[in-house]
Every structure is written in C-alpha cells, then in structure tokens.
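User: Design a sequence. Structure:
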C-alpha cells in the first residue's frame, strides 16, 4: 500500500506508510491518502466478528491496520495494537461499546480512554507507532502543539513514557475547563511540558505556526506535530467504525447509520473511508454546532471558511472550527480523485476568495446517493434540551458534543430522512464539561473513579508570553 497527496499529480512519488507517519502535510500542501481503499467483504467481516468477540479490540485493530500498513511486520503491528488498546488504558478488552438510547438511536462509546474523549482512540495508537518508528530510525522527535483542551491532553497521555519524544503543549491561559487543565497539568514527566500562553487558542496556534516557519530551528530540534491531518490518526479511527458495527449488529447483511459530532472532519472522514471499504453504512450524519461551515456545504454546495471573529465560542468547544482541516480528503474522493481540481479549490480559491462553490456540479448531486452524507446543526439551547431529554428517557448523561450528534440524528429520524438504527458517536464523557451538564440537569454527573480529585494534584505548567522567541528559548533550554 502506497500513499499519495490530494494535490499531487500522477508523476508525484508515492510513499510507504512509515514515510508519512512522522509527517504532517505533504510537501505540496496536500493531505496523504492511500492509493485505493482495500475492499471489505462479508466473509472478512464475519471472521472479524468472531475475532473481536474472542480476542478483543486490539486484535481487530491489527487486522484492519495491516490492510493499510505493509512496511511494519504483522507481528510488530499486533504488539503495537496490544500496547495501544490495553484494558488498562480503556477499561476493558472490548475498548468500545454500544448501548441503546431508544427510538432507533444507539450510543457508540469511544471515550473510555485515559482522557475521556474519543481522541484517545487515535492518539494512543499514534504514540505507540511513533515510539516504534523512532526506535527503528534511531531518531528523536519534539512535538510542539496547541490545544484548546481535548487534543493536547490526549497527545500528552499517548506520549507519556515514550523516551524518544518530548512534548511542548501550548494552552490558552485560564481558558480550558478546570477538569481539562487538571488532566494536563497534573502530568509529572520531564519530557512533557505544559505551557500557559497569555492569549486565546488562536494565539497559541499562531506561535506554533511561526515556530514551524523557522525551518532551521525545526530541523535542528526535529520538530513535529500530532495534528488531526495525520493519516495514522485517521486509519486508527476506521477501526472503531468496524468494531461498533460488529457490536451493533448480529449478521453481515445489516445496515446502520452513524451520526458524528464534527469539527475538523477527522472522525467522519474515517467513517467515509470505512463506507468506501464496504462496511454496510447507509448514512453518515454530519452534526455541527453553531459553527456550521460544514453543514452549510452539505446543504448548499458552498464551502465558506470563517475568520476568527466569525467563529463562535460554544458549549461544544471542540467543534468550534472556522475551517475543517480534513475536509480536503473527502473532496478529493468526491471529485473522483482529481488532484488538479483539489489544488485549485484548496490552494487557490480558499486562500484567495475564502470559499468555493460546487453547487450545480454532478459531484455535489452525488453527495447523498453515492457517499451517504446528510448534515445538520444544533445550538446551545438544543444541547441543553437534548442532554436533559436523554437523561430522562434512558438515564444516560451525554456530553455537549455528543448531544449535537443525538439532536441532529433524532431530527432526521423524525422527518423520516434517516433509517434506523443510527449509532451516535460519543466523542467525550460529560465529566469533562460539567458546567454545561449542571446547566442542563441542575446537577453534576457522577465522576468516574479514575478522575477523582485530579484538581487537587500539584500543577506542572510554565507561563509563556505570546512570543515565538521565548518559545524557542524554552525549547532549547529543555
Ligand atoms: C475533536 C472533537 C470533536 C470533533 O472531531 P473532528 O474529528 O475534529 O471532526 C468532537 N467532539 C469532541 C469531544 C472532540 O474532542
């Protein structure tokens, strides 16, 4: 299996998995995708059903990943997956689970990992893959990232104890929830450095961008990233679509829908890939919050990115995006893998005009029929009402991001625009967003035992002015 860039012509080199693992963007600014998606047949799915039931999630993950990774020996891949998806980290060998929210809606539990958000599903694997590949190459890596909460903590817990990796994570001072701050700042490991930047998330991200623009510094310190465009994160996510499908069904002919709370289009892009492989997915429901860049595209064919001023701060903050970094991958497939067209849209039109328009094209007309997509959005009031309604209907408390997904799925079911069952992906546990839960229910959720008292642990965080030279000096000093 070789990988190509969404902006690369036919003459561009195609790379093996290990060569793109440690990279972010392709050199031409595009995103990596496999040359083709391996096909899944009913017999394979049936054998995986048994494998998952008997040997657990890690064994299934190794089988799925082997379809995409042919330059790591199968035995090593199995060991990598066993370390990434341990019962220790995820609470059980099954790792994920499905429960019934009634009325045709199922909840796909993806947030049983160390940081109580689905990002652990990809990040735990990434940590093991990085450690393996850096060992093989005898290299080290300095990860410099910016986070508004979930990604940074998932990355830090994934890189804990990986001796070839150092992490510098920039956070906007005082702006994450107390729980998120405690999760990150309680980590006591010399190779994980938390930084509190005077400013907002965009200031943190700008600093990371400025740092990466200094190519000499980047090379001297082997600076890398763990952002959501990394292909390994996506392929890790394909696995749980298959696992949840197998848990929600009893035989291979059954079809399901998935509803996905969406920000950067990483999670649902993995669903698109699983569907392209032949997993029996009817519909992919894309749910946004008030930041509805993507819902607007799926409704109108116009993709219009927003500026910071137009990006709302909402109660599902991990979906507060102004442009969706993985969307280019889907558009590449939508346009029949036409790299020239993708380059025109994402390298010329988006930077130049802030938008592009596919309405009236055959590609846009094929969105529902060919690719199974529908979309919708929700508001703060919808989230509160949904959290309360689900709690009284089934006793399940869902987090505000998951509530966006449930709300959009239930609306479509009610309008007969969606065939049940639909599996809503639970992207975080409610404990991470207790202020919104209290607002919805009048009381907080019970906290899982493993997170008891984390706010009282000593904090490990350094203050940093929003100044790239200060950041460079700090990295050099470590
Ligand atoms: C990251 C995140 C999302 C959005 O996922 P994308 O892959 O960026 O679309 C949704 N909910 C939670 C809780 C998240 O952390």
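Assistant: Done.
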């Amino acid at each position: 299996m070789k990988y190509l860039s969404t902006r690369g012509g036919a003459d561009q080199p195609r790379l093996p998995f290990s060569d793109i693992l440690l990279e972010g963007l392709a050199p031409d600014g595009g995103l990596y995708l496999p040359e083709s998606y391996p096909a899944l047949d009913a017999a394979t799915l049936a054998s995986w059903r048994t494998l998952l039931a008997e040997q657990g999630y890690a064994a299934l993950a190794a089988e799925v990943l082997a379809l995409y990774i042919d330059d790591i020996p199968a035995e090593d891949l199995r060991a990598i997956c066993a370390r990434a998806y341990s019962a220790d980290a995820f609470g059980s060998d099954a790792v994920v689970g499905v429960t019934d929210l009634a009325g045709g809606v199922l909840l796909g539990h993806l947030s049983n990992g160390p940081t109580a958000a689905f990002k652990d599903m990809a990040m735990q694997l990434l940590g093991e893959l990085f450690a393996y590949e850096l060992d093989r190459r005898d290299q080290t890596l300095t990860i410099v990232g910016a986070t508004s909460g979930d990604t940074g903590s998932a990355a830090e817990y994934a890189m804990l104890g990986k001796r070839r990796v150092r992490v510098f994570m920039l956070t906007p001072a005082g702006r994450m929830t107390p729980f998120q701050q405690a999760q990150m700042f309680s980590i006591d490991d010399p190779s994980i450095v938390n930084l509190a930047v005077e400013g907002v998330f965009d200031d943190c991200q700008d600093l990371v961008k400025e740092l990466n623009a200094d190519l000499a510094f980047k090379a001297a310190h082997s600076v890398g990233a763990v952002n959501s465009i990394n292909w390994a994160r996506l392929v890790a996510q394909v696995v749980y679509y298959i696992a949840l499908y197998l848990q929600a069904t009893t035989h291979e002919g059954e079809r399901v829908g998935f509803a996905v709370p969406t920000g950067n289009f990483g999670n649902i892009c993995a669903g698109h890939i699983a569907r392209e492989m032949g997993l029996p997915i009817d519909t992919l429901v894309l749910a946004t919050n008030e930041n509805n860049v993507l819902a607007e595209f799926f409704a109108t064919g116009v993709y219009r990115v927003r500026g910071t001023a137009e990006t709302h701060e909402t109660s599902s903050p991990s979906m507060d995006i102004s442009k969706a970094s993985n969307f280019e991958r889907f558009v590449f497939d939508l346009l029949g893998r036409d790299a020239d067209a993708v380059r025109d849209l994402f390298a010329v039109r988006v930077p130049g005009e802030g938008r592009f328009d596919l309405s009236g094209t055959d590609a846009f007309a094929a969105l529902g029929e060919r690719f199974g997509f529908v979309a919708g959005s929700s508001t703060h009031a919808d989230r509160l009402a949904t959290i309360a309604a689900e709690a009284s209907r089934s006793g399940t408390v869902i987090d505000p991001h998951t509530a966006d997904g449930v709300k959009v799925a239930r609306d479509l079911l009610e309008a007969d625009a969606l065939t049940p069952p639909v599996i809503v992906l639970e992207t975080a546990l409610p404990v991470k967003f207790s202020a919104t839960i209290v607002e919805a229910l009048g009381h907080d959720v019970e906290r899982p035992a493993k997170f008891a008292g984390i706010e009282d642990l000593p904090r490990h965080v350094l203050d940093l002015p929003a100044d790239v030279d200060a950041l460079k000096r700090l990295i050099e000093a470590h």
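Residues 146 and 205 are 5 Å apart (CA to CA). The mean pLDDT is 95.
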